[in-house]
UniProtKB/TrEMBL annotation:
InterPro entries: MULE_transposase_dom. Transmembrane segments: none annotated. Pfam families: MULE. This is Os06g0484950 protein. Residues 156-235 form the MULE transposase domain.
Length: 242
């Protein structure tokens, strides 16, 4: 027990004495302050603000993992769609919008060509109505071109991998072999699908980057579009496919 005193309501000097008893509840609390509850305050903006520290530590954290982290940290239940859109707001703030990244390609091209003269960076666009849309991209750095021509075998392996994310498509790549039989990156790019037209465009940019290479061997898979492109752009080289 304890004792406390306070001035009387009449403002006099007499003190009002009160007795109180402090007790400790040794059992688990089940009230809202301790258990997870569904809160209306967890809006998309709320999620975005609190997601930033988590995404700074792990920028590849997906909505499901972020949902679990936020719920465990703040002891509330947050709907998945709220976390999904809140995470998008946070990533836009941290890394910029996905749609804006296409405009940054031209700045990337200018920066590469300024700091690494001789590099080949090509951006292909299409016009739909009054708007210009990104279509294809190719990049071969000067160091990669010189390394291939001066220190690698006359062999190039070409293939592409599917991109799974906010924007789908394919990432074609050309790799060589150095004197240790290690893979040597030569060029890469982006396009929407493995069509004959896209592969011909990619191979034309590659041919422009490396020029004529005596006794060049090109290794591809059995993709018809790629095989046709190789025959068209490099009709004189040795070909192999798997």
């Amino acid at each position: 027990p304890g004792r406390a005193s306070s001035p009387s309501s009449s403002g006099g000097d007499e003190a009002l004495s009160l007795s109180f008893l402090v007790q400790i509840n040794k059992y688990d609390h089940k009230c809202a302050s301790r258990s997870r509850v569904r809160g209306r305050m967890a809006s998309q903006a709320w999620v975005a603000e609190r997601a930033i520290p988590f995404l700074n530590k792990k920028n590849g954290m997906g909505p499901k993992e972020l949902q679990k982290e936020l719920q465990d940290t703040y002891k509330i239940t947050i709907p998945y769609h709220t976390v999904y859109h809140g995470r998008k707001r946070a990533t836009d703030k941290l890394f910029g919008k996905w749609s804006d990244s296409f405009d940054w390609l031209y700045r990337f091209k200018a920066e590469v060509e300024m700091r690494s003269p001789g590099s080949v960076v090509e951006i292909d666009t299409v016009k739909v109505g009054d708007k210009v849309h990104f279509n294809r991209f190719f990049c071969a750095f000067k160091a990669s071109i010189d390394g291939f021509l001066g220190g690698c075998r006359p062999y190039i392996s070409i293939d592409s991998t599917a991109l799974n994310g906010y924007w789908n498509g394919h990432m074609p790549a050309a790799n060589a072999l150095d004197g240790h039989n290690w893979m040597f990156p030569l060029a890469f790019g982006f396009f929407d699908s493995e069509t004959k037209e896209n592969w011909v465009w990619f191979m034309e940019q590659l041919a422009n980057a490396i020029g004529p290479v005596p006794k060049l061997a090109i290794h591809t898979d059995a993709c018809k579009g790629l095989e046709t492109a190789v025959h068209k752009v490099f009709p004189w080289q040795n070909r192999g496919s798997v």
